[in-house]
Amino acid sequence: MSGPSPNPRRPEGTYDVLPVPHGSQPEERLAGWLALESAVRSVCARYGYQEIRPPLFEHTSLFAKSTGEVTDIVEKEMFTVPSRGEGDSYTFRPEITPGAIRLLIENRLFQQKAFWKVWYWGPNFRYERPQKGRYRQFVQMGVEAVGSHDPLLDVETMAVYAEILRLVGVMKFDVRINTMGCPACRGGYREALRAFLEPHLASYCGNCRRRFERNVLRVLDCKVPEDARRNESAPAIADQVCAGCRAHFEAVQAGLRSVGLAFAVDKKIVRGLDYYTRTVYEFASPLLGAQNALVGGGRYDTLVASMGGPDVGAVGFAAGAERVLLAMRESGRPAAGLPPPDFFAVAADEAARGEIFLAAQTMRAAGLSGDLDYERRSVKAQMRAANKTGARYAVFIGAEELARRAVKIKRMEGGDEGVMSLDEAIRVIKGETR
RNA sequence: GUACCCGUAGCUCAGCCUGGUUAGAGCACCUGGUUGUGGCCCAGGGUGUCGCGGGUUCAAAUCCCGUCGGGUACCCCA
Fold this sequence. Notes:
- With 434 residues, the chain is of the alpha+beta class.
- It folds into 3 domains: 26-182 and 241-330, BirA Bifunctional Protein, domain 2; 184-237, no CATH class; 343-433, 3-Layer(aba) Sandwich (Rossmann fold), CATH 3.40.50.
- Helices cover 38% and strands 19% of the residues.
- The chain contains 17 helices and 16 strands.
- Strands 1-5-6-11-10-9-7-8 form an 8-stranded mixed beta sheet, with helices on both faces.
- Strand 15 (407-411) and strand 16 form a beta hairpin.
- Helix 1 packs antiparallel against helix 6 (151-167) and helix 6 packs parallel to helix 11 (243-258).
- The protein binds one RNA strand of 78 nucleotides through helix 3, strand 6, strand 10, strand 11 and helix 13.
């Protein structure tokens, strides 16, 4: 009654990564992913960060307690599934920081040493309406330096990210930083902000009135032009933090200047997650659309202890890989693809098909990369295929070569040919001869 | 959840406003251009439920309604 069943479709807000150029979405091209991931890997290694791989889902309570009960993420964006017969439900991670800290604590890594620098890369899940640079399954990479209050680490994490961006050719980005104070001084600021807002509260947007009740700081984040303009004259937390926080913030700024990383202090930055203290920062790209945040990060000096770990400071960031891919495309530097294969094996006639397959196997076993035709196509068609793969050499076996127990190889660029034993051919293709 | 835009070949799109010959272009793909050899060139090949369903009409890719899917933006963030 309902006709043919519709073709299978990917869920809303997801994308496929393909081995070939397709359409115009950069996040769908494998080459960009490989370039970005290898840049991340090499920079993190150079800075002494070690990779960790927490699971894709955690107990829901982990996020409720660390990310924050009243954040948008926890309130309406989590993919949560019941855990059969057990108390807590499971949630596919909307961010990785809570899992990373959980991993350090649960595995008693702080018993081994008090200070850890780790990085991660992998998919996250948030139930939102997708748009440019925003997906329901998206990849984040991030670093966490856990176990120190040193402001130099705030600087270092930013330097790590700046270096990753430059390595993939994204040279244009704006760095903005702010300080959120610490538990000791934030309470006083909240009161001051409430006192400022209260008289004009009626003229603020509905969202802001809600924020006023639940998380005043977020009022400063409002994008409604009128509200934003009024907020200009609001007291800034950076001006009211305690001496310790002020000294920390100044040390961070001095550090950024010393490493030559341009930045601007933006008193309106208020990160959306509950756990941030002191330094918060964002890198934004002028090349992207509305979702222009390339990274969000900052210090979270109370989170580790609140999760049952030692009372230590920590700082880190999380970056959206799809947005970096977008920025890479806008920066006009195409990602280099994989290196071309070494050979394409051609059966010059039907009788040689078995032999050509064995020759290919031998070459692969010797460390060469290459392919052959599986459709009994003409030599011409096989050569077209060879050309299309970009192979450096074509390797022929036909009646002549069978008779001489040899192969003929042809250098695709230039076209010169030669007949020799397979072992010799392997040496030539490897560049070990001449 | 709301608003606006879009859905024709593998890809990018034209055709739609002003319904009417066999639904097109470029790229991609396939075959051939004589003996076992690519690219360039030449000759040929359409590979398509015009998203889906219904309506109007003698006639619908084209007009109307609905629906599904996608995109962008608001919100929020990576």
